[in-house]
Write a structure and sequence with these properties.
Blueprint: E1 25-31, H1 36-47, E2 52-59, H2 65-72, E3 77-79, H3 88-101, E4 106-109, H4 118-123, E5 128-132, H5 144-151, E6 155-162, E7 172-179, H6 186-209
Parallel strand pairs: 1-2, 1-4, 2-3, 4-5
Antiparallel strand pairs: 5-6, 6-7
The structure holds glycinamide ribonucleotide.
Amino acid sequence: MNTDATPSLISPAVVPLQPSNNPPLKLGIMASGNGTNFEAIAQAIQDGRLNAQIQLLIYNNPGVKAVARAQNWDVPAVLINHRDYPQREDLDSKIAQTLQEYEVEWVVMAGWMRVVTSVLIDAFPNRIINIHPSLLPSFKGVRGVEQALEAGVKITGCTVHLVTLEVDSGTILLQAAVPILPNDTPETLHARIQVQEHRILPQAIALATSLR
Ligand code: GAR
């Protein structure tokens, strides 16, 4: 990616849509839990804000809400349970193979709570997007919302970035800021961060893939 063209502004108001003569981008979504970001992508596609189609949802925890959401949107949901793959590389190999079977072009980690290896990254070089609930590079890794509260910062937010081997460290695509209020709990703060996640994730996908 040409980093000169990568916007560094927080929450730009306008992100250009992909040219309409492009065929819909074939997305694979990976989620570990609730799946509200999956749903935000599906909604953006339905609304015409993102020229894409979701080929499948990969999930790693049986029974998570993301599966019901996928069914509601008629998206195939494929369980790849990390507990069946003691080696991370074997898990990622299975994930990459499945994504390829479904002819996925770009991958979105929408609440995927596993560290990925070079096996997956090399299968989709510069084509994996992650959403993280903090203003990176602050508060990487797990518990991003709690880390911000514990640090006592007054502003946090969310970041959409390209995935590299180093956790939460790839090129930043979009960020949105969220103020921390005096009585915030992890739950109230996360709820406000998620409103912003649902807004910027589809925008960031459109932005990242507009150069294809
Ligand atoms: C989101 O807040 C996302 O930023 C976070 O998990 C949540 C998933 O929500 N991801 C991470 O913490 C990754 N380190 P969802 O299942 O409702 O989309």
